[in-house]
Specification:
heterodimer; A: alpha/beta; 4-stranded parallel β-sheet; B: 46% helix; disordered N terminus
């Protein structure tokens, strides 16, 4: 189990001319859009529901179910927002899709917008992705010229417009309500929920926000049927999935596999094992840096799916898999993870603004040799004071991995405190 | 303005307003959105494209066009790491130091860059050629270590590779 018999989302990424609409159409792009426009909208939503597709952005929420939250009778304009703010450390799959196959992406966005009766698509792309932005902008213009975007799409009577919106550097804008605030020209402060975006989204209008990879699955679900999609992987953990492999691995990169590919297969067969084969595997962060770290022994028999990782105390998240060998000091690794959250906390909620910075400084102090007895207990209690106490889950995303590092590598933390230095650094000196 | 104050230099820069063509571009950006407030980020991008940063005067002009206060615009500018509030080097070198890049040697690359440019992260070279910053994950972890210089990603960096890249930037 694990490998796909054929590539799906990545099948055309190796063609240099794929971003060009004629080449993409020659390989089948927009065929499912044309078909979708002849279908009942609710039938499309039903297919996506039956496929078991879960969100690829991090939360793993069932995609079709999310779409049904859009009110059917609202007279207000309805929006689809595409979340292309890919910023979770260790994640680089959406960037690949938009840079190499923008028309596959657009087709997925358009079919989804049609299914949920949207009249406008916002694509929110992180500010740093300049190449991806320009590639998408060109693809949108080409698609407009061919009649896939605009008034009366392919003679169906459906009008749709697309606005490509560039962020400007803020991780929190990947959180859906912060993204909407940013889209409205404000600081990216997450909103209280409820109300949820489906009832009160961009400008207070019904809005659905989906990840790029999630929506790229939709044309394939229409083409091959929900049963085909649901037949890949296992129950409630279905479909092809992009895994991002990085860190101490021989062949880092994006790999498409079944949801649930065993970690050792992903890492060993696809990734080629450790970068330095003389080293040993020490730890893995399986789903972006907000996921709890796993020890090497926990990775032995580990299907990389949503429910298994959650049951084992971590998460599949954005499938950003970061591999560490035994040259890594786990206190330093923890410090690196927390530096990110200290920098990116939006500052709206006190437990997060103060907590993320405090836990980072404390771990940095321990790493530098200034740790004291009792630090770890205080650290864990501050983490507990952050979890579940803020508007969005950012605080949890900082505190949960911090707790996992301390729990699973407690000896290394204690050694730093008692030796007043990093044992690995001391060993090298 | 008090010339003796160190901040005097920044007041000078702050006084720069946007040119006609940028102001027209901002109007076009406003027209693209259902509500004009959504054009704030695009407007700031246009200002930065013209000036290299978002001057206080530009922020005021944008505030007027969007219909918000200059303080509101300043609050937005300061929230996003890619907007500069003062002049920066011609080439802004953003070195990623998050987990995957760190695992692949970003610490050593940072030392090398600081040595070569003679500045610390956060500073600009005296000749105005380079600004060096450390940044958080840029979504290029499979090709770590990496940096972004202005708009371009430079991936799979080695000492030699970054040396050659910097030498090629005038």
């Amino acid at each position: 189990m694990g490998a796909l018999t054929e590539k799906v989302l990545t099948r055309n990424l190796h063609h240099a001319d794929q971003p060009d609409i004629d080449a993409a159409v020659g390989r089948g792009a927009y065929r499912q859009l044309a078909r979708a426009l002849t279908m009942e909208r609710d039938a499309i939503v039903e297919e996506v529901k039956k496929s078991g597709l879960r969100g690829r952005g991090g939360a793993g929420f069932p995609c079709g179910l999310k779409w049904t939250f859009m009110p059917k009778d609202s007279p207000k304009p309805r929006y689809l927002v595409v979340n292309c703010d890919e910023s979770e450390p260790g994640t680089f799959k959406d960037r690949l899709l938009i840079e190499r196959d923008p028309h596959m992406c657009l087709e997925g966005f358009l079919i989804s917008a049609y299914a949920m009766r949207a009249s406008l698509i916002f694509i929110y792309i992180r500010g740093e992705f300049v190449l991806g932005h320009n590639t998408l902008a060109r693809a949108i213009e080409q698609a407009r010229a061919k009649g896939y975007i605009g008034g009366n799409v392919l003679g169906s009577g459906w009008d749709i417009d697309v606005i490509l919106h560039r962020g400007a550097g803020a991780y929190i804008c990947g959180e859906e309500t912060a993204l909407m605030e940013s889209l409205e020209g404000k600081r990216g402060y997450p909103r209280l929920k409820p109300p949820f975006p489906a009832s009160y989204g961009v400008y207070g209008n019904p809005t659905t926000i989906n990840n790029v990879e999630t929506l790229c699955c939709v044309p394939f679900i229409l083409e091959r049927g929900s049963a085909w999609f649901a037949g890949i992987g296992r129950e409630k953990n279905t479909g092809p999935k992009l895994y991002c492999l990085s860190g101490h691995v021989k062949r880092p990169g994006v790999y498409e596999a079944e949801v649930g590919i065993p970690f050792m297969r992903l890492f060993g067969e696809l990734g080629g094992g450790l970068l330095d084969p003389k080293r040993k595997l020490k730890a893995v962060i399986p789903g972006g840096s907000s996921a709890a770290v796993m020890t090497a022994s926990e990775c032995d028999d580990l299907p990389m799916d949503f429910d298994t990782l959650m049951a084992r105390g971590s998460m599949l998240g954005s499938a950003g898999v970061m591999v560490m060998d035994d040259s890594v000091c786990m206190v330093r690794a923890c410090e690196r993870v927390l530096k990110f959250y200290a920098h990116e906390s939006c500052g709206q909620c006190t437990p997060c603004r103060v907590g993320a910075d405090w836990i980072h400084r404390t771990v940095a102090r321990i790493e530098a040799g200034g740790g004291k007895q009792g630090d770890l207990e205080t650290l864990v209690s501050v983490c507990d004071g952050m979890i579940g106490k803020t508007i969005c889950v950012f605080a949890d995303a900082a505190a949960l991995p911090a707790k996992s590092f301390v729990a699973k590598f407690r000896d290394e933390f204690n050694d730093h405190i008692s030796l007043k230095t990093c044992p690995m650094r001391a060993g090298k000196a | 303005m008090n010339g003796e104050l160190k901040v005097g230099i920044e007041f000078e820069h702050a006084a720069q307003g946007l040119g006609e063509s940028t102001l027209k571009e901002i109007d076009r950006a406003i027209a693209r959105y259902p509500r004009k407030e959504s054009a704030l980020l695009p407007a700031l991008w246009l200002a930065q494209q013209e000036q290299g940063f978002c001057s206080l005067e530009a922020q005021k002009q944008i505030a007027e066009k969007i219909g918000v206060s200059p303080a509101f615009v300043a609050g937005v500018v300061s929230f996003y790491t890619m907007f500069h509030t003062r002049p920066v080097g011609r080439h802004v070198v953003d070195l990623c130091t998050t987990v995957s890049c760190w695992l692949r040697g970003s610490d050593d690359l940072l030392s090398q860059l600081e040595r070569k440019l003679g500045i610390k992260a956060g500073e600009t070279t005296r000749d105005g050629r380079f600004t060096l910053r450390t940044v958080e994950c840029l979504g290029s972890c499979g090709t770590a270590p990496m940096c972004q210089i202005n708009e371009d990603y430079h991936e799979d960096l080695t000492f030699k590779k970054i040396d050659t890249i910097l030498d090629g930037l005038k």
